[in-house]
Specification:
By secondary structure, the chain is of the alpha/beta class.
Length: 705
C-alpha cells in the first residue's frame, strides 16, 4: 500500500468509503445474492430496545418461549394470516405431513450458504445466520441462539414463536416434536439438507414418541418461493495453481484410491465444498468468504468425477481437470451415479455427518431395487458387503496437514497481510491523533480497503469484527450501520479480520488502544499476551490432542481469577475456509485429533468484561518439529512457528508482569516482523510507524537484598 496514510488525509471520508465499497465489489468473485449485515444489539441499547417492544394498540409482535419476555397485548386490529405460512401449510397437507423442519443448511452443510438455500430466512423473515424453523398446521416456531434473540423478536411476524435456544425450559426441536405432536404424526424434512447422522437422531426421537420422520421429494418452502427463489450462483471456477497447492490432482486421487483399498470400499463420496475444492485443486466464488463452488466428488478405483455446473468450467479449468483424468459432469447427476454404483454392488464410503440423507437414500434404494441377482458377483469373503460404509473421510486430515508449498503460500499471504494491517493501524493512529472519529462499521470497510490494495486479494475470509469498548466484549459481534459505536482518540478497539489471497488465508486479531489504557486494561491485556506466548512456545509430543494444550493459553488469566468462554484455536485452510478441522485447541475433551507437523492453528486467548471492553490477541501458527536434547519414547516433539507478522501493541503491556523470557520473545517476534514486512512497505509514513511498533523493549530489573 503506497501512500495510504498520506492519501487518507487528502480526501473526505465519504469519498474513501465509496471507493472502498466499490473496490470490494470489484475484488469479489461474482456471486448471486449476498447475506445481509446482521444487526447486533449492545448492552447500552438493551433498555431502549426492550422498551420498544411494548406493543402499542394495533401492533403485534412475535410470541416468545421465555416467560420473562414482553407479552403481546390484545389488539382490536385483526392481522391477516401470513400468506407464506398459508401456502406452506397447504403444501404440507398435500405432502401428507403434520410438521416440517426448515434448517439453515445447504446440501453441503456449509458455514455460509448461497441465497438460493436460505429457506429458513425466506419463510420466517429472520435474517440471522443461525436458526431452525419448524412449521406445523397451527404453529410456527423459530429456534436461535443468544446472539440473535432481540433481532428475532424484531423480525418475526405475529404468527411466529421465538424459541430461545439454550435457555432453561426451552427444548430442542426434536424434543419439542416428541412432546407436542400427537402419536402417529408425520414430520417432514428435505433429505438434501439434513445429514445422515442428524436425520438418524431425529428419527429415533420421533419413533420413541410414536411419530415418524418422512423425507419429501419437494421442499414445501420451494413450493411457496417458486419463481422468486434466487438462482443458483454461477461464479466461474479458477485453477488453484500448483505453486500453491503443492500436490497434483492425480496425486490426490491416487491417495484416495489407496485409502479405498485400506477401507475395503469402492467409491468415496465427497460432499463438503472445501474438500471438493482441495481434491480437484480448484477455487470458486459461490459462497461469501469461502472460495469454493457448489459441487460433489466421487472417486472410485477407475474413475474420478467432479459434479458441478458446467457453465462454471472455464477452458483453463477444463484442461486442468482433463490432465488429471477427472470427468466433469453436471451437478445434479451425482445422485444418479451413486445409484448406479450401488446397483452394481459397489460399497460407498460416506461420512455420516457430512453427506445428506438424500444421497444415502438414493444409493440404498437402488441397491435394494437391483436385487442380489443383478448385483456384481461377490466372492465368499465379501458376502457381508454393504452398500453404505460409514466412516470419517480421509480428506479432512490430509487437507489439514499442509505441504511445504501450501505453507510457503500461507506465509506469503501473511506477509502481504502484514503490510495491509500495518497500513491500517498507521492510518487509525493518525486519525486518532487528529481527533477524528470513525464508527465500527466504517472501520470494517477501511480494513477491507487496505487488504484490497495487496496483490492476489479476492475477499475477506470472514466479516470483520470491529468492537469498540463494550462491543469488544461481545465475542461474535458484527457491527451494522445502526449499532456501530464511534472509534476515536480514547477508544480501545478489538479488531478481528482476515483475507483470502490467491496463495493463502489469513485470520488475525489485535486489540489496540488509541489513547491511554487503564491499569486494569493493561493487566488483563498482559495476561492474555502471556497466554499467547505460552502456547506459541509450548513443546509437546506429537499426536497430543488440542485440549491438552489449552491450559497453556489460560494459565496467567487463571492466576488472576480470569478466563474466556471460547476455544483457543481452530484449524485454517490454505486458500480455503478460515475455519477447518479436524484439529482444534479447546477445553472441550471431545476432539481427540492428534496434532502433527504441518497443521495450522489459530492462537487466540482473550478476556471479555461485559459492558466494559474486550481483549483478544490472535496469530496463526504452524506446527513444526521441535529441537529437543532427548527423544523420550522415540516420539517426535513439536512446537509452533508463527505465520502472522503484525505488531502487538506495547502501550497495553504491563511489563512488571512479564518475565525476561516473555519480553525476549516479544522483541524477537517484532524483529522478525520488521525484517520480513518492512521491505514490502513503500509508504514512508507506514514504514516509520512499523519501525516504532517493532522497536525492542528494555526492561530494567532491580534486585533487592
Amino acid at each position: 500500500g503506497e501512500g495510504q496514510c498520506v492519501r487518507a488525509s487528502a480526501v473526505t471520508g465519504t469519498d474513501w468509503m465509496l471507493r472502498a465499497s466499490a473496490l470490494r465489489l470489484l475484488q469479489r468473485t461474482p456471486i448471486v445474492g449476498k447475506r445481509a449485515p446482521q444487526p447486533t444489539q449492545t448492552p447500552s441499547q438493551l433498555a431502549t430496545a426492550v422498551a420498544s417492544l411494548r406493543v402499542r394498540p394495533g401492533t403485534v409482535r412475535a410470541r416468545s418461549s421465555a416467560a420473562s419476555d414482553v407479552k403481546v397485548e390484545d389488539s382490536e386490529t385483526k392481522m391477516a394470516p401470513d400468506p407464506k405460512l398459508v401456502a406452506m401449510r397447504a403444501a404440507m397437507k398435500a405432502a401428507g405431513v403434520d410438521a416440517f423442519i426448515v434448517p439453515s443448511q445447504d446440501p453441503h452443510f456449509s458455514e455460509y450458504v448461497p441465497t438460493c438455500f436460505e429457506r429458513r430466512r425466506f419463510i420466517s423473515g429472520f435474517t440471522g445466520s443461525a436458526g431452525t424453523a419448524l412449521v406445523t398446521h397451527d404453529e410456527a416456531l423459530l429456534w436461535t441462539d443468544g446472539r440473535y434473540f432481540l433481532q428475532a423478536e424484531q423480525e418475526l411476524g405475529p404468527e411466529w414463536t421465538l424459541m430461545r435456544g439454550g435457555q432453561p425450559g426451552v427444548p430442542e426441536p426434536s424434543k419439542w416434536l416428541a412432546d407436542k405432536m400427537a402419536k402417529g404424526s408425520k414430520v417432514g424434512v428435505d433429505p438434501a439438507v439434513h445429514s445422515l447422522s442428524e436425520a438418524r437422531a431425529l428419527r429415533s426421537a420421533l419413533e420413541a414418541a410414536g411419530s415418524a420422520l418422512v423425507t419429501l421429494d419437494v421442499n414445501p418452502v420451494d413450493t411457496v418461493w417458486d419463481a422468486d427463489r434466487p438462482a443458483f450462483p454461477t461464479a466461474p471456477l479458477r485453477v488453484h495453481k500448483a505453486e500453491f497447492s503443492g500436490k497434483s490432482v492425480a496425486d490426490k486421487v491416487d491417495f484416495i484410491r489407496a485409502k479405498l483399498d485400506e477401507n475395503k470400499s469402492d467409491v468415496l463420496v465427497v460432499s463438503p465444498l472445501d474438500e471438493v475444492a482441495w481434491l480437484f485443486n480448484v477455487r470458486g466464488g459461490d459462497l461469501d468468504y469461502n472460495p469454493v463452488t457448489l459441487g460433489y466428488g466421487l472417486v472410485s478405483k477407475d474413475e474420478a468425477c467432479f459434479y458441478v455446473d458446467i457453465g462454471k468450467v472455464t477452458n483453463e479449468v477444463r484442461a486442468h481437470l482433463d490432465e488429471a483424468g477427472v470427468v466433469v459432469k453436471p451437478y445434479d447427476e451425482c445422485a444418479g451415479d451413486m445409484r448406479a454404483a450401488a446397483a452394481a454392488g459397489k460399497t460407498l464410503w460416506i461420512d455420516a455427518d457430512k453427506v445428506s440423507v438424500a444421497l444415502v437414500e438414493a444409493a440404498e434404494e437402488a441397491a435394494a431395487a437391483a436385487g442380489p441377482a443383478e448385483k456384481k458377483a461377490k466372492t465368499e469373503s465379501d458376502d457381508a458387503k454393504k452398500t453404505i460404509k460409514e466412516g470419517v473421510s480421509p480428506i479432512p486430515l490430509a487437507k489439514a496437514v499442509k505441504n511445504e508449498a501450501e505453507l510457503a503460500g500461507m506465509l506469503e499471504a501473511h506477509l502481504r497481510d502484514g503490510v495491509a494491517m500495518a497500513s491500517f493501524w498507521c492510518w487509525l493512529d493518525e486519525q486518532a491523533a487528529q481527533g477524528k472519529e470513525w464508527d465500527e462499521y466504517e472501520i470494517g470497510e477501511w480494513v477491507s480497503k487496505f487488504r484490497a490494495e495487496q496483490p492476489g486479494f479476492s475477499e475477506e475470509s470472514f466479516a470483520t469484527i470491529a468492537g469498540e469498548g463494550p462491543h469488544g466484549a461481545i465475542i461474535h459481534y458484527r457491527a451494522s450501520a445502526e449499532s456501530a459505536r464511534k472509534v476515536g482518540p480514547d477508544s480501545l478497539l478489538l479488531c478481528d479480520s482476515g483475507g483470502q489471497y490467491d496463495c493463502g488465508t489469513t485470520d488475525v486479531t489485535r486489540t489496540h488502544h488509541l489513547g491511554t489504557p487503564t491499569d486494569h486494561q493493561k493487566n488483563a491485556y498482559t495476561r492474555v499476551l502471556q497466554g499467547h506466548i505460552g502456547l506459541t512456545t509450548a513443546v509437546f509430543p506429537q499426536d497430543t490432542s488440542g485440549f491438552v494444550l489449552d491450559a497453556f493459553a489460560r494459565r496467567h488469566l487463571w492466576e488472576a481469577g480470569l478466563d474466556y468462554r471460547h476455544g483457543t484455536g481452530h484449524g485454517v485452510g490454505a486458500a480455503l475456509n478460515v475455519h477447518e478441522g479436524p484439529q482444534s485447541i479447546s477445553p472441550r475433551f471431545g476432539n481427540m485429533t492428534g496434532i502433527v507437523p504441518g497443521m495450522i492453528l489459530s492462537n487466540e486467548p482473550g478476556y471479555y468484561e461485559d459492558g466494559g471492553f474486550g481483549i483478544r490477541i490472535e496469530n496463526l501458527l504452524v506446527v513444526r518439529e521441535a529441537k529437543t536434547s532427548h527423544n523420550f519414547g522415540n516420539k517426535k516433539y513439536l512446537t509452533f512457528d508463527y505465520l502472522t507478522h503484525i505488531p502487538i501493541q506495547k502501550k497495553l503491556i504491563d511489563f512488571s508482569l512479564m518475565s525476561g523470557a516473555e519480553v525476549a520473545w516479544l522483541n524477537q517476534y517484532h524483529a522478525v516482523v520488521w525484517e520480513k514486512v518492512s521491505p514490502r512497505v513503500t509508504d514512508e509514513k507506514v514504514k516509520a510507524w512499523l519501525k516504532e511498533a517493532c522497536a525492542p523493549v528494555t526492561v530494567k530489573t532491580v534486585v533487592i537484598g
